[in-house]
């Protein structure tokens, strides 16, 4: 979406965009959601799959490698819960940020928009969401 001033606000980067982190969410995030639902419903889930998901996704979620070890069922549940929390909360924060920044830019409050993005960058932990916010900040400065 572009506002009247030509500044682009995207919920996700275009497919052509190259993330400096070189990692993008995909089916793994969806699979984490499905496993979280199974855990909440008391259904069975594959420990091996959670271990593999943890190994593939921990960096992209800003989690330490030791968290991704998932040695037992309790640590696997803890990983899935924390991963989903980071995805859910980061996504919500990013959406709120983009809406607020767009409104600020439309109201000619460029400095406030930049400050709002910088505040987001201080608290967000998911590299993918950080990358999107950094791209928006760069667009505001152009």
- Content of β-strand: under 5%
Q: Roughly what percent helix? A: 55-70%
Instruction: Please work out how many helical segments DSSP would assign.
Output: 5
Tell me the structural class: mainly alpha
Characterization of this structure:
The protein has 142 residues and is an all-alpha fold. It has one domain. The protein has five helices and no strands. The protein is elongated and about 55 Å long. The two termini are 17 Å apart.
Quick summary of this structure?
With 142 residues, the protein is mainly alpha-helical. It has helices at 27-41, 47-57, 73-106, 110-123, 127-141.
Keywords:
single chain; 142 residues; mainly alpha; 0% strand; elongated; disordered N terminus
Write the layout of secondary structure elements.
Elements: H1 27-41, H2 47-57, H3 73-106, H4 110-123, H5 127-141
């Amino acid at each position: 979406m572009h506002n009247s001033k030509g500044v682009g606000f995207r919920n996700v980067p275009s497919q052509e965009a190259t993330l400096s982190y070189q990692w993008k969410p995909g089916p793994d995030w969806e699979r984490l959601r499905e496993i979280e639902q199974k855990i909440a419903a008391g259904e069975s889930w594959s420990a091996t799959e959670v271990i593999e998901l943890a190994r593939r996704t921990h960096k992209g979620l800003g989690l330490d490698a030791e968290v991704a070890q998932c040695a037992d069922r309790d640590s696997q549940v803890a990983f899935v819960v924390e991963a989903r929390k980071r995805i859910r909360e980061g996504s919500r924060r990013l959406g709120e940020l983009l809406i607020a920044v767009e409104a600020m830019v439309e109201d000619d409050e460029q400095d406030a928009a930049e400050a709002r993005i910088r505040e987001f960058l201080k608290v967000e932990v998911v590299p993918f969401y950080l990358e999107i916010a950094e791209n928006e900040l760069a667009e505001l400065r152009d």
